[in-house]
Amino acid sequence: MRIGLLADLHANREALTACLKALRRAGCERLVFLGDLVGYGADPAWVVDTVREHVAAGAIAVQGNHDAAVLAPEQARLHEQARAAIAWTRDRLDGEQLRFLRELPLQVAEDDRLYVHANAWDPAGWGYVDSLLAAQRSLAATDRRITFCGHVHEPALYYDSTLPGAAAYFEPRPGTPIPLLPSRRWLAIVGTCGQPRDGNPAACCAWYDTGSRQLAILRVPYDHEAAAARIRAAGLPEVFARRLLGED
């Protein structure tokens, strides 16, 4: 079975639409949404409803820190501009959409895989896997062979090295399938669908094939200028539009 993986959608309708089409073309039979459906972008209601429809059809979704922030903004550890986007977002979600976000699990274990937004050692603490030490900490916190997560906004692949208590890093090349050897344990960060921050405006998603045990990162061009224009028209902070344009 080929599984499509999307993280950090961030209310970006245009990016999500393009990534869903790309994953269908890649032969994905199931979808997993790795959190942060909302925040930053101009289409939170549409994105939440789209994910709800896929979950009703058998997809998996977990809660991200921006999803949690919409539910409890007073507890969120976010910078001022992100807080402004959260307040704007909350006013545009109805009771059913908020309930859907509230009921999302922090993590889901399935077969040899763990799906979580930030990390496996403290899913509700939202710590970043942004170093070898953090990757090893997350790997040590689960008995699953592969952990899939988001939160960092750039794709990355870590695995347990031959040294005790250490992790190693591999930079995935978009479009090139990578065999996740069964003799190792892996942590894959699938990049961000809704808000790339690496200067490349193309959206990011991934697929994992349970038969061949291969992972591929995809970069998907989409109408990022339209998405940025919608952010500006909504009156959201300008920085979120500039990021989509690769300007920040």
Helix-strand layout with pairing:
Layout: E1 2-6, H1 13-25, E2 30-33, H2 44-56, E3 60-61, H3 65-71, H4 80-90, H5 95-103, E4 107-110, E5 113-116, H6 132-140, E6 146-149, E7 156-160, E8 167-170, E9 178-179, E10 186-189, E11 203-209, E12 214-220, H7 224-234, H8 238-244
Parallel strand pairs: 1-2, 2-3, 5-6, 6-10
Antiparallel strand pairs: 1-11, 4-5, 7-8, 7-10, 9-12, 11-12
Helix pairs in contact: 3-4, 7-8
Domain Calcineurin-like phosphoesterase: 1-202
Family: Belongs to the metallophosphoesterase superfamily. YfcE family.
Protein name: Metallophosphatase family protein
Written description of the protein model:
There is one protein chain. This protein has 248 residues and is an alpha/beta fold. The protein has a single domain (2-244), classed as Purple Acid Phosphatase, chain A, domain 2. The chain contains 8 helices and 12 strands. The chain has helices spanning 13-25, 44-56, 65-71, 80-90, 95-103, 132-140, 224-234, 238-244, and strands at residues 2-6, 30-33, 60-61, 107-110, 113-116, 146-149, 156-160, 167-170, 178-179, 186-189, 203-209, 214-220. A 6-stranded mixed β-sheet has the order 3-2-1-11-12-9. A 6-stranded mixed β-sheet has the order 4-5-6-10-7-8. The N and C termini lie far apart (38 Å).
